[in-house]
Amino acid sequence: MENKEPQHQDHDLVSDASAEIKGMAKQGLNHPSTKPVLTGAAVGAIAAGILPVVTWPLGLVAGAGFMLYKRLRP
To answer: Which chain regions cross the lipid bilayer (predicted)?
Structure first.
């Protein structure tokens, strides 16, 4: 019988994210992930300002988290 379950890359997502965040903290704007993650944070904060239910800090974190995820798992 064949295993039909999808093969996910997410098994090391937390360790990959931790390493990426540490690299961003050490290298600052020179790190290739810093600018896209900051852009995602800004877009999330602006979008949250437009939506009546979501606060801007939540939007900021969600936008940054989404962009970080997209950098780790394109």
So the answer is: 41-69
Read off the pTM.
0.76
Q: pLDDT value at position 73?
A: 86
Closest CA to 40 of 23, 13, 62: 62
How far apart are the C-alpha atoms of 33 and 28, rounded to whole Å? 9
Residue scoring higher pLDDT (31 or 13): 31
Residue with tokens 């996910």: 8
- The whole-chain average pLDDT of the chain stands at 86
Q: What is the C-alpha separation between 63 and 46, in angstroms, rounded? A: 10
How many whole angstroms separate alpha carbon 2 and alpha carbon 16?
30
Domains: count for the chain = 1
Element containing residue 67 per DSSP (H, E) = helix 56-72
Q: Is residue 26 domain-resident?
A: no
